Amino acid sequence: MALDENPLFMTYNDIISWYIRKNGVTKETISARTGIAVRTLTSLFSKNAGSKKHSLRLLIALAVGLKMIPSHAELMINLNGQFLRDSNITERYYKYLISAGSFGCVAACNDFLVEHGFQPLTDNENISIFQ
Asked: How buried is residue 67: exposed, middle or buried, by Cβ count under 10 Å (0-12/13-18/19+)?
C-alpha cells in the first residue's frame, strides 16, 4: 500500500502513524534518534495519546526525530490540544527548531537550546543516532 503524499490528518494518531510508516522506523530507532525512552514512546503512540497533553519538549523532539515538515509538526502539537505561541519565548524557539531546514537532529536542537539558556528537549546522553 502506497502512502498518500498529501494526507489529511484528522487525529494526533493519524499524523504519528503516517510518519512512522513514511520513515519506516521502529520505536527503538526513534528512541535512538530522540533520546525519548521506548516506554515513553509507547505512551506517545497509544490509541488515546492524542487526548492526553504531552510535554511540548517531547513533542518537538518527536517531530524532529520523525523529520516532520513544519506545518505537520505544528498540526501534531495542535491535535494534542496545544499551540506554539509567538508571545512565549520558549515556544518561539521551538517553532524555530521545527522550521524548514533548521536542524537535522535532536542533539543539535538540544545544543542550541542550552546555548541560549533553555532546557534541552531530551538528554543527549540518551541519543545514539545523530541524523
From this structure: middle
The conformation of residue 129, written as its DSSP 8-state character, comes to -
Neighbours of 109 (CB within 10 A): 28
Taking residues 85-90, report their average pLDDT: 95
Cα–Cα dist 22/90, whole Å: 29
Query: Considering the entire predicted model, what is its pTM?
Result: 0.89
* Calpha distance 106→61 (Å, rounded): 6
Which residue type is seen at 19? Answer: Y
Q: What is the pLDDT of residues 17-53, one digit of tens each?
A: 899 999 899 999 999 999 999 998 988 887 776 678 8
